[in-house]
Design goal:
The protein has 186 residues and is α/β, with parallel strands linked by helices. Helices cover 51% and strands 16% of the residues. It contains six helices and six strands. The longest helix is centred in the middle third of the chain and has 26 residues. The structure holds zinc ion.
Length: 186
């Protein structure tokens, strides 16, 4: 079991399971190591249960992404072809509606992000794993990235843009999370 302790200005000890299954303890500055150790010991049951849950979630997540194997050249080429038949038409449609002009679109086999937009260069990256989502969820990601050409951050203004061009963005986001069992960045 890997335990990572962070000392900070807090009044009590707390813990959570990190992304890689490590136990992350947050402790008030100056807490003796012994106290931290005891805290971890006392919560061993909770930790074990949480670790099992995390492992299960990882497994399900892996199963999800394994549905689209992208190891051979052939697989990558096929995925790129499918992306090319779905993404550009959506980008075109919404660019016109939203009055934006992206200059470049790329695809990557990224599992941490569905898409990524650089508002300065106006380049947008889309994850090839979007192919595992229903079309309306793909559409949501396209509109989301294009909306960043209008508002770079995730402020209220950004979501107002989403309300205008893709009113079901909340549902789409929840559905995407449910299907992929992950919290991805957009
Ligand atoms: Zn975003």
């Amino acid at each position: 079991m890997q335990v990572v302790v962070t000392y900070r200005k807090t009044s009590r000890l707390s813990m959570r399971i990190g992304k890689n299954g490590e136990v992350r303890v947050s402790a008030p500055t100056g807490t003796p190591e012994q106290v931290v150790r005891r805290f971890v010991e006392e919560h061993r049951d909770w930790i074990n249960k949480a670790l099992v849950k995390t492992a299960e979630r990882h497994e399900k997540r892996r199963e999800f992404f394994d549905q689209l194997p992208l190891t051979t050249r052939q697989e990558c080429r096929e995925a790129a072809e499918r992306m090319n038949s779905i993404i550009p038409p959506l980008v075109e449609k919404y660019s016109r509606l939203m009055g934006v002009k992206p200059v470049g679109i790329t695809y990557k086999a990224t599992i941490s992000k569905w898409g990524c937009c650089n508002p300065k260069s106006k380049r947008i990256m889309f994850s090839a794993y979007l192919l595992l989502l229903p079309e309306w969820c793909i559409e949501h990601v396209v509109v989301h990235e294009l909306a960043h050409l209008i508002v770079p951050n995730h402020s209220d203004k950004f979501y107002a843009v989403m309300d205008t061009y893709f009113p079901r963005w909340r549902e789409a986001r929840a559905e995407t999370k449910k299907i992929s069992r992950m919290e991805a960045e957009e």
